[in-house]
Amino acid sequence: MVNTLNGTTAAGLLIAVAAGSRIRRAPDGILIAENYRFRTPAASCFTVGSVIITRHSAEWLLDDRRSALLAHETHHTAQYAILGPLFWPAYWLACGYSICVTPSFGARNVFEKRAGLREGGYPEDLPLRTWLKFGREDGRTAPPGT
Questions:
Q1: Is the link from the previous residue into 85 a cis peptide, with omega within 30 of 0?
Q2: Backbone angles phi, psi at 31, to 5 degrees
Q3: Cα 33–2–39 angle (5° rounding)?
Q4: Chain centroid to CA 38: how far?
Q5: 63 phi/psi in degrees, rounded to 5
Q6: pLDDT per residue over 21-51, tens digit each?
Q7: At residue 62, does pLDDT exceed 70?
Q8: Residue range 66-108, pLDDT digits in tens
Q9: Are 114 and 75 in contact (CB under 8 A)?
Q10: Which residues contact residue 39 at a Cβ distance below 8 angstroms, ignoring those fewer than 6 apart?
Q11: Is the CB of residue 61 less than 8 Å from the CB of residue 109?
């Protein structure tokens, strides 16, 4: 409901319609946009507002074997409820930070970490980039805030 009021679900529906996706209802007010056809992003699923957009069918995502992935994406809907449209710049800043310090935009992204890295298909323990390994002989010094 909050994501409907803050406009992020409308944005998710616009993306889904533009990509030719079919919208299906799921439990807890979640909408699934199935058969997403654009190349970007490359992920099998991503979330905008209360819309989980997937390259696959809704049945694929709702299958018990993907319950962890569904929980991960559902967690993002709660993040949208808290931040509203501010989620987008905050998420992209978190992606930028993560890609600066690791080879992955998700490994050190606070939003992906809180949604569950493993559940979202992200690596959990990537080493820091070599230029960040400073200050100690063993090279384990992490930048502030990690």
A1: no
A2: -110, 140
A3: 30
A4: 17
A5: -60, 140
A6: 999 999 999 999 999 999 999 899 999 999 9
A7: yes
A8: 999 999 999 999 999 999 999 999 999 999 999 999 999 999 9
A9: yes
A10: none
A11: no
Structure tokens belonging to residue 64:
């018990």
Q: Kindly state the tokens that stand for 118.
A: 């493993």
DSSP symbol at 48: E
Q: How far apart are CA 141 and CA 86, in angstroms?
A: 31
Based on its alpha-carbon atoms, the radius of gyration of the chain, rounded to whole angstroms, reads 17
Cβ-count burial of 116 within 10 angstroms (0-12 exposed, 13-18 middle, 19+ buried)?
Answer: middle
List the structure tokens of 87.
């989620």
Q: Per the structure block, which two tokens stand in for 94?
A: 């978190």
Q: What is the pTM of this model?
A: 0.86
